[in-house]
């Protein structure tokens, strides 16, 4: 990545033209950025920087030559700059925009240029470069030396006592430069990782003393700053411009101060960002904690495959960018205070019950602009007249919103916060025309009657134009020249044009101004005087209008606190109305909070039911501390069921109603998920290692108030090891954490734990077979809806008490299109294994957990499966009562085969490789069996 001054120019600095020398000077000062240099109607980059811009933006490079030599250049059209700037930002470049800060017509020599802003992925403020309805954050992580301020760790909410004692404190700050939102907290390494996942910054500053491993999980652009930026005293000085530094701990001060210093640098401001009204200090424990794994596993904001609907997409019935950001924030940080949750439910219920009021509010909100970003542009002095009219239109909608929710007790608080700002609205309407031009320097912005001096100047200009408008008719009558015309050009001013054939009639008071091919242009003394009056008046009017507008903008900026408070209220109203709309349209129910466990009647997955019209609802009855072991077929809906239970909790605590017929829910402190398999190749972690790391976090940090979702723990290793890990995890969750847990597994041996532990229960997903041998049939009073069917089995997606009789893995393989020979062979092996189990008493499975299970099935060896699978013994499959000593050749072959099978790296094997390996193992097993047959015949 090439940034800074081009080396080829630095080598011959003394030979450069004045403009290129100016470019090099700017590029050296902003050596971490691509400098785009305003030259006429283009922003240009040169030499190595031009190569980068051309590659990223797919533009053509050109070769330029002057007295100093040849160099490459690439230009971005100023009028279409946002399109190309976005490409550079998406490629994680910083861009320093060097504008002309002097009028070229007034410049004597080289036009002065200066960097007016530095664009980075986390600090853009241009509307064209921002995603509507979502925040763009830049974050900062700073550390405090061990032992300096133990209080800096109070914000982490971590439960690992050893880490609380030994880990250094980290400050985490974030700011949205476009809206002014700024917040800071502190915690240990685990808390930093969790907060960065929730903040989801577009850019991250990392202080020199921070262990890189702490921020490894942040998938965004990293920015390096001068170490002096993170000096405690320097950071304190910057923070002091925004808030009392003593309100924050040491690490928080460094993080917030360094971050705000960087924000000021990118905006080209010498002083504080006035629209950053306050720096909020928060404690993550005051909201439902969702780490990166939970956010990803529950698909709150991002679908696993990068497309399709998310929970946010499903709920987003907002009408404004303000409401959209607020709804997103509520889902990222659901509440944990029962009173606050129920107050939000009251407000949603009030909107849900009042259709006319809800729709009136939503109609009014459709006219609302993004107040936060408008206030930011106004405070930065970058707002134009259209921005002020947008502010007026938004303020004009507030009285309608207040009237619609008047008299509703549950909405009284937010109604009180909806300050219509009547004085500001009247000021804007009095000053700015209804449809102002885009540019504020060319006049036509300020209403007549707003300023007496401006009105007088405009009158002079208007009277002059009226005099000139009548001049043509008067001069035709005076001179007798019928085709005489009066016109105007910017170069020559006003003129009287006479064709060559009529020149003999030209009066003596006409002075020649311009000669054309077929005519001459003249002026008179009076026309020249009027021209000077008009042009002078228009110039003075434009200048005065700009002064008046700038003063008006400053007066509006002085009210940024009031605008910010109104923006907060509008955002809340929009988000509440959106939740009510979703509840009404999708038949959600208000949850009863404070229950001692989870109780859901006919719950549904809010996203899946949108795309699956025959979605099967299911109940969930989980007293506090229950560990529910969920078994059943693949594709039966286990993962969907677990997610819908967790989403009901998240929705309820965010203030939403939930998709169910009835809901009684506790207030949980955290939701942990381990649902779905994925690896981290770039990080050097296999699926199993990642699974174990996520399991570690759950077992360390879950409490009795947590909800835990675990899916197929232990599947990435050998059967014995995986089953042992799964059993031990269940026992730990039951005995040590007491967390309410949904534990999906194919280790059917674990279901015996329900007989040994008080709070372990079995649940399974029903399936039926054509002959009714396996699975569970639905009772006639509750018909099931088939969802996935093969030739022999139908998956019903209905959860029941008890354990499943089978996982139906072979049937799913058949549905997936696995070759018939593989499916047939798999059926034979499963049947042989079942026959073997029925013919022998069961023994302890030896799970390694320390708690034996008398009913567990012993792990089968390949030797046993192979023997039964080929029908040795009586009745086509039962083992003979006295098995003769097998030939040595078979014994050796089976031993080698078993060793290779146990050593096979399953966690690193792709599905295709697994199928090929299975085919090879099958071939070797058949060879061993044939050797055995030959020995018996001999």
Automatic annotation (TrEMBL):
Keywords: ATP-binding, DNA damage, DNA repair, DNA-binding, Nucleotide-binding
GO MF annotation, one: ATP binding
Any one of the GO BP annotations: mismatch repair
Polar residues bias spans: 858-868
Region feature (Disordered): 768-792, 831-893
PROSITE patterns reported in the protein's UniProt record: DNA_MISMATCH_REPAIR_2 (PS00486)
NCBIfam families, per database record: mutS1 (TIGR01070), PRK05399.1 (NF003810)
Function recorded in the entry: This protein is involved in the repair of mismatches in DNA. It is possible that it carries out the mismatch recognition step. This protein has a weak ATPase activity.
Family: Belongs to the DNA mismatch repair MutS family.
Protein name: DNA mismatch repair protein MutS
Lineage start: Archaea, Methanobacteriati, Methanobacteriota, Stenosarchaea group, Halobacteria
Gene: mutS
């Amino acid at each position: 990545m090439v940034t800074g001054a081009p080396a080829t120019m630095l080598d011959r600095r003394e030979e450069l033209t004045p403009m290129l020398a100016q470019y090099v000077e700017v590029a050296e000062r902003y050596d971490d950025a691509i400098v785009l240099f305003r030259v006429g109607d283009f922003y240009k980059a040169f030499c190595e920087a031009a190569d980068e811009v051309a590659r990223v933006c797919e533009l053509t490079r050109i070769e330029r030559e002057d007295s100093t030599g040849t160099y490459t250049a690439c230009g971005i059209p100023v009028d279409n700059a946002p399109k190309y700037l976005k490409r550079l930002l998406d490629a994680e470049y910083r861009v320093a925009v060097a504008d002309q800060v002097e009028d070229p017509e007034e410049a004597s020599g080289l036009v002065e240029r200066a960097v007016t802003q530095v664009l980075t992925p986390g600090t853009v403020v241009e509307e064209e470069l921002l995603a509507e309805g979502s925040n763009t954050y830049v974050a900062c992580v700073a550390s405090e030396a061990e032992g300096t301020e133990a209080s800096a760790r109070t914000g982490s909410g971590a439960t690992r006592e050893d880490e609380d004692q030994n880990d250094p404190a980290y400050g985490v700050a974030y700011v949205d430069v476009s809206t002014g939102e700024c917040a800071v907290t502190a915690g240990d390494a685990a808390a930093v990782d969790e907060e960065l996942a929730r903040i989801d910054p577009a850019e991250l500053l990392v202080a020199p003393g921070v262990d890189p491993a702490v921020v490894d999980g942040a998938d965004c652009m990293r920015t390096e700053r001068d170490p002096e930026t993170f000096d405690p005293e320097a950071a304190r000085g910057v923070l002091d411009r925004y808030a009392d530094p003593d309100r924050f701990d040491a690490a928080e001060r460094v993080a917030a101060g360094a971050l705000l210093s960087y924000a000021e640098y990118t905006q080209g401001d010498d002083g504080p960002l006035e629209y950053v009204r306050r720096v909020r200090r928060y404690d993550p424990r005051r909201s439902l904690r969702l780490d990166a794994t939970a956010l990803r596993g529950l698909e709150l904001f991002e679908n696993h495959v990068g497309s399709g609907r998310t929970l946010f997409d499903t709920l987003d019935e907002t009408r404004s960018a303000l409401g959209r950001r607020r709804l997103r924030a509520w889902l990222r940080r659901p509440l944990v205070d029962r009173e606050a949750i129920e107050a939000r439910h009251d407000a949603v219920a009030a909107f849900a019950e009042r259709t006319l009021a809800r729709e009136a509010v939503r109609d009014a909100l459709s006219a609302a602009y993004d107040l936060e970003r408008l206030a930011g542009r106004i405070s930065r002095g970058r707002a134009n007249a259209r921005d002020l009219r947008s502010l007026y239109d938004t303020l004009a909608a507030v009285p309608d919103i207040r009237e619609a929710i008047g008299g509703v007790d549950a909405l009284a608080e937010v109604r009180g916060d909806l300050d219509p700002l009547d004085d500001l609205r009247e000021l804007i309407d009095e000053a700015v025309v209804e449809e102002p031009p885009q540019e504020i320097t060319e006049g036509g912005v300020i209403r007549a009657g707003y300023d007496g001096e401006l009105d007088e100047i405009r009158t002079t200009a208007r009277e002059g134009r009226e005099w000139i408008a009548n001049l043509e008719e008067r001069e035709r009558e005076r001179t007798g020249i019928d085709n005489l015309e009066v016109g105007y050009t910017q170069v020559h001013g006003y003129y009287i044009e006479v064709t060559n054939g009529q020149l003999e009639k030209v009066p003596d008071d006409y002075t020649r101004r311009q000669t054309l091919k077929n005519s001459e242009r003249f002026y008179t003394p009076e026309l020249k005087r009027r021209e000077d009056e008009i042009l002078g008046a228009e110039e003075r009017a434009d200048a005065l209008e700009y002064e008046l507008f700038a003063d008006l903008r400053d007066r509006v900026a002085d009210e940024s606190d009031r605008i910010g408070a109104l923006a907060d209220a509008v955002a809340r109203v929009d988000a509440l109305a959106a939740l009510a709309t979703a509840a009404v349209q999708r038949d959600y129910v208000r949850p009863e909070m404070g229950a001692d466990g989870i109780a859901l009647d006919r719950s549904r997955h809010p996203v899946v039911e949108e795309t699956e019209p025959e979605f099967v609802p299911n109940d969930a009855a989980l007293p506090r501390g229950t560990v529910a072991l969920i078994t059943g077929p693949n594709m039966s809906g286990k993962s969907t069921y677990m997610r819908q239970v967790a989403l009901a909790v998240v929705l309820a605590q965010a203030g939403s109603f939930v998709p169910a017929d009835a809901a009684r829910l506790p207030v949980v402190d955290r939701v942990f998920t381990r649902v779905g398999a994925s690896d981290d190749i770039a990080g050097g972690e296999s699926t199993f290692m990642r699974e174990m790391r996520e399991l570690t976090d759950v077992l360390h940090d879950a409490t009795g108030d947590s909800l835990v979702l675990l899916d197929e723990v232990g599947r990435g290793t050998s059967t014995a090891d995986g089953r042992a890990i799964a059993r031990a995890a269940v026992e730990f969750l039951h005995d040590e954490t007491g967390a309410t847990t949904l534990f999906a597994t194919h280790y059917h041996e674990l279901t015996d734990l329900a007989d040994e532990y008080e709070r372990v229960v079995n649940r399974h997903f029903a399936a039926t077979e054509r002959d009714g041998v396996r699975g569970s049939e639905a009772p006639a009073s509750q018909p099931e809806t088939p969802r996935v069917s093969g030739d022999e089995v139908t998956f019903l997606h209905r959860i029941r008490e008890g354990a499943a009789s089978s996982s139906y893995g072979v049937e799913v393989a058949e549905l997936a299109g696995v070759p018939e020979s593989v499916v047939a062979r798999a059926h034979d092996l499963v049947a042989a294994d079942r026959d073997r189990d029925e013919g022998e008493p069961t023994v302890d499975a030896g799970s390694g957990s320390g708690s034996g299970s008398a009913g567990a099935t012993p792990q089968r060896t390949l030797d046993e499966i192979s023997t039964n699978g080929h029908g040795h013994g009586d009745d086509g499959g039962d083992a003979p009562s006295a098995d003769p000593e097998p030939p040595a050749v078979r014994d050796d072959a089976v031993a080698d085969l078993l060793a290779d099978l146990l050593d096979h790296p399953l966690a690193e094997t792709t599905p295709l490789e697994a199928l090929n390996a299975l085919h090879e193992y099958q071939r070797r097993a058949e060879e061993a069996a044939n050797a055995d047959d030959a020995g018996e015949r001999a």
